[in-house]
Amino acid sequence: MDDDMDQTLGAVGPRLRALRKEREATLADLSEQTGISVSTLSRLESGARKPTLELLLPLAKAHGVTLDDLVDAPPTGDPRIHMRPVTRHGMIHLPLTRRPGGIQAYKLIIPGGNKSEPTPQVHEGYEWMYVLNGNLRVVLGDHDFVMKPGEAAEFDTRTPHWFGNADERSVEFLSLFGSQGERAHLRAKPKAERG
Hints:
9 strands; elongated
């Protein structure tokens, strides 16, 4: 067991170096991002220093990977992803992304018969939503409208906003949310020119 752990910890240094090089970051850049000294980062990458949880957590966040990915943890045996729904403000949130930072994806469900009065909120970020089923009432600034299945909207979340059931039926929609204002960019392949 100790040999396995030593082998796993020994492989962290090269993985850290590869992740940093992939991001084209210097040790100084990474030091500024994580608060870990350049000399400690260098010793971690070379294997001269054993990684600790206190060092690995900020590094995983800086590289945008999970701690399991950083240490190459073995699979748990069950390949299924078990989404854990969270209920907030009468809505069921099912997280669809599992990586830290960046744009997060959710499936949101507002149960039927849950019609409530709008209470617009504001916060940092940018959101893109797509209605799957039901009718979603959206209050966005001075606008109050209903989105139907297949419709999408995007907005800066610093604009007062609220969404809920437009009628007594449940509503399901997808949400892409960037807490620092990241925007989802869609790329379309241009049509082939006809000759």
